[in-house]
Design a protein that fits this description.
heterodimer, A: about 400 residues, mainly alpha, B: about 475 residues, Formate dehydrogenase/DMSO reductase fold, 3-stranded mixed beta sheet, 17 helices
């Protein structure tokens, strides 16, 4: 069976419930959010270990903050990871499902690894981050989180190489149903996407934390200045390594897909851009927090687009394109998602505003404007249930007959 | 259509079951725990009883660390495990309901960001603001539950979706409403158990301790009574006849129902004790109660999965991941018809052609290998079909519905006998007809005979995992 026929056959016969390109855009955008939290978790975890080994007072103080950040970042990384996981299955179902079955054992083990990493990070934060006891739990947590990253990387690497799938599954015609082999990986790409982005993500987090906390009346300006400077130093160093890793990635994976120049230019350009950003703010890094977040998300968006280009080119070799994915517009789905989006975005925005404002002052004041917005958002969430029941009633009366 | 992942040591379906059971506990707890906390917090605000925040703080930390985050993680875990175990089943759900899951994702975000906001702002923001956060958590959790019930219940009763192909018809399917209400009721039982664990950890003599234990017992008991009534008088009668037949067939391991009933009785006793004599409640009792509830959930979820057999999506896709019916509203034709005529080998992407096997000089018996490939594709979703998914401890085997054991029990141990047996397999209410040609069926029989020999080469005793 030709690979293009195989890929077409493997697509779900139901097709997508909306324009496939919309899922592609959602996939890219939500992956940015996900990878931000994942890499920040790894960055803060690694730093907290360094801080407790270093034992210098400022490092210890910041290390405790990092230890507290780690489990929360892991939790947010998991939750934000659900969205790209959904969208990839809609338009790239042959890829995702083939990769997950070929690597089945690790695909299933993944979640136990993440649970272990999260639990140990929490253990260290709750019981060890005061005096540095239980440092082993932080180290083991970091190892597990990195291993989870490795598993996801291997799944992705398998998914973009459909020409190998049948060989990997049944070499010589004999099927291997264990799913224990990591069939494909690309170390430079992983190095670029995981540890180096973790370093950069953590640097940005430091700039943001310093900028945010400086607004509190009880802020310690000397410590925050030190924190922002540290973020800037880490950022400048890692952004250079980022570029070098990008060139290795280009030379390793680029030739396979004819994308050497594209990956090299993009990753090196990102590296230079980020270095220049950190350089431009190193006189007063504490002022750069909000801007840093913007720059970082823009950089991650470019990385997400690069990943998508590689996947598109890889599949294009076999005539598989998101643009040609069959679809049928399912208005019930669209209605449900549209209405839930209004309530969901409002409530999430309110919650973020409460966390942000409550952390700015010792007494946790939330502005009257935010409170008004909160009443509306909560009302919308309550009204959503009315909508949900009404649609159910309509369906029972008119669509179930 | 996809490679088969059988599992390693433990059968792939058991990975799904273990993760799913944990997820049900954690996720139901988030919903009912949020409602219980809201109830307590409303009393704290209205009656100006700040001492109740002691309970809320403990509960929120527990919920945040255990329930919300582990609930979300195990939710992803279900995805990973079902994807590896039965990709086309999950694919059908995704392509029907991706936007419903997308909607649920908003609710997840509300849950996880909400519990972080809730815990870290206890005692920091105004009481009114904090109470609003409690409302948001309760509503967000309920939204999550509401959305997932439609997707879960679709698998057993797709309803008019089979005629019109509309996602709404599949979502609000015939068992949606009773299951929705039933899950809401039973989640308060879980919350009762959880609240007892938290409240019994409050120092004795703390003057609200007994009251909270009593509330927890009362709310849990009400949930239990309503849930059982919904099961008996609405959910069970709504089930398709086929499902009710399978429910009392050997497909459900006999131990399942005693486990479920024990959980229900234990919950009634434990919660009743809390209501009537809260001062006697102890943490160890609460922990045992929670463990028995968990065992009952495991049993109930297994029953829910088994009564759908032999389909993964009732009336549409069988457990072997092939479409056995047309869906004209979506322009979809059955896949099995052609495969029965032309054969499976070489006609699906990951079923190697017989020629590829016969030219491989390393394979001593190509027929055996063809048989293994076919048995793996057709049977491994529900059965242990190789030594790869069994655990032997001393002389005991732990396996999931081993085909070797079933065939030995039915005295079909030679290839010829097995061939006849497979030919008539659709006689069981929980089995479909085998897909493939006569020659392929014969190859399956050869492999199964070999598998029986492999399995019984020593005198191990079988313990089924079911």
């Amino acid at each position: 069976m030709e690979i293009q026929d195989m890929l077409k056959m493997m697509r779900d016969p139901l097709g997508a419930p909306f324009f496939p390109v919309v899922f592609q855009v959602l996939l890219v955008v939500t992956w940015v959010l996900h990878i931000h939290f994942v890499t920040s978790a790894i960055g803060s975890s690694a730093y907290s270990i360094f801080a407790f080994l270093n034992k210098e007072a400022d490092h210890l103080r910041l290390g405790r903050i990092a230890a507290r950040l780690t489990p929360n970042m892991v939790g947010l990384g998991i939750v934000t990871g659900i969205a790209p996981l959904l969208f990839v299955q809609v338009i790239y179902d042959p890829l995702w499902y083939a990769a997950n079955t070929l690597t089945g054992f690790w695909s299933v083990t993944f979640i136990f690894v993440v649970m272990g990493g999260y639990s140990l990070a929490y253990l260290f934060y709750l019981k060890g981050s005061k005096d540095g006891r239980l440092l082993w739990s932080a180290v083991l947590s970091l190892c597990l989180l990195c291993f989870a990253g490795w598993v996801m990387h291997a799944l992705h690497a398998v998914s973009i190489r459909p020409e190998q799938w049948t060989y990997w599954y049944a070499p010589g015609g004999v099927i291997d149903t264990r799913g224990v082999i990591f069939h494909a990986y690309d170390i430079p790409r992983l190095f670029f996407l995981l540890p180096l982005q973790a370093g950069l993500g953590f640097a940005i987090t430091l700039l943001f934390v310093a900028w945010y906390l400086r607004q509190r009346a009880d802020a310690d300006p000397v410590f925050l200045e030190w924190t922002a400077n540290l973020g800037c130093r880490i950022g400048k160093t890692v952004s250079l390594l980022y570029g070098v890793a990008g060139l290795f990635w280009a030379s390793a994976e680029g030739p396979e897909f004819g994308l050497t120049a594209f990956i090299a230019v993009l990753t090196f350009g990102l590296s230079v851009g980020l270095y220049l950003f950190f350089k431009s703010v190193d006189k007063q890094p504490i002022q750069a927090g909000a801007k840093a977040i913007g720059v970082w998300f823009a950089a991650l968006l470019l990385v997400a687009i690069a990943r998508e280009v590689i996947r598109t080119i890889s599949l294009g070799r076999f005539d598989y394109s998101v643009a040609n994915y069959p679809y049928i517009i399912d208005w019930g789905s669209v209605l449900m998602f549209g209405v839930t989006s209004i309530a969901g975005v409002s409530v999430v925005a309110y919650l973020v505003m409460v966390i942000y404002q409550a952390g700015l002052s010792a007494d946790g004041t939330v502005s009257a404007k935010t409170e008004r917005f909160g009443r509306i958002a909560t009302g919308l969430l309550g009204a959503w249930f009315g909508f949900f029941l009404l649609v159910g009633l309509y369906t029972a009366l008119f669509l179930q007959q | 259509m996809y490679p088969i992942w059988e599992g390693l040591f433990v059968h792939s379906a058991m990975y799904v079951a273990i993760i799913a059971t944990f997820h049900v506990l954690a996720s139901h707890l988030t919903v009912a725990g949020a409602w219980f906390n809201l109830y307590i917090e409303r009393r704290a605000v209205r009656e100006n009883r700040p001492e109740l925040y002691e309970y809320l703080k403990r509960s929120a930390l527990g919920l945040m660390v255990f329930s919300y985050v582990f609930g979300a993680m195990s939710g992803v875990g279900i995805w990973q495990s079902t994807t590896a175990a039965n990709p086309r089943g999950i694919s059908t759900l995704i392509h029907n309901f991706v936007f419903y899951w997308g909607s649920e994702w908003y609710m997840f975000l509300i849950d996880v960001i909400g519990i972080i906001a809730y815990y870290y702002t206890i005692g920091r923001v105004s009481k009114e603001t904090h109470l609003r956060l409690a409302w948001i958590l309760a509503l967000g959790g309920s939204g999550t539950l509401s959305l997932i019930v439609g997707i879960l219940s679709f698998k057993l009763t797709p309803g008019a979706w089979l005629e019109n192909g509309l996602s709404l018809a599949g979502f609000y399917n015939p068992t949606f409403w009773p299951q929705w209400l039933m899950r809401f009721a039973f989640m308060f039982v879980i919350t009762g158990g959880w609240s007892l664990i938290i409240a019994t950890g409050i120092p004795r003599g703390y003057f609200e301790r007994e009251k909270i234990i009593r509330y927890a017992g009362g709310i849990g008991l009400i949930g239990l009574v309503i849930g059982v009534c919904l099961w008996l008088f609405w959910y069970e009668p709504t089930l398709p006849i086929h499902a009710r037949t399978v429910m009392v067939s050997p497909a459900v391991v006999p131990l399942t129902y005693p486990v479920i009933i024990t959980g229900i009785v234990a919950a009634a006793l434990g919660l009743g004790l809390s209501l009537l004599a809260p001062q006697l409640q102890r943490r160890w009792i609460a922990l045992i109660l929670m463990a028995l509830i968990q065992a009952a959930i495991f049993g109930a979820e297994r029953v829910r999965e088994v009564i759908r057999k032999p389909d993964i999506i009732s009336g549409y896709m069988s457990s072997n991941q092939l479409l056995f019916n047309d869906l004209p509203a979506r322009g979809i034709a059955s896949e099995e018809a052609n495969l029965k005529r032309d054969g499976m080998m070489g006609n699906l992407p990951f079923m190697p052609s017989p020629g590829r096997l016969s030219t491989n000089t390393k394979i001593a018996n190509p027929q055996l290998e063809i048989g293994r490939t076919l048995v793996t594709q057709q049977c491994s979703a529900c059965h242990n079909v190789s030594l790869q998914t069994e655990i032997r401890v001393v002389n005991r085997r732990f396996v999931l519905r081993s085909l070797a054991d079933l065939l030995v029990a039915r005295q079909r141990t030679t290839a010829a006998e097995i061939d006849v047996y497979i030919k008539a397999i659709q006689g069981f209410p929980y089995m479909h007809e085998m897909v493939g040609t006569d020659a392929e069926r014969a190859a399956m029989a050869i492999y199964l005979e070999h598998f029986i020999t492999q399995t019984y080469d020593n005198q191990a005793t079988t313990i089924s995992q079911r």
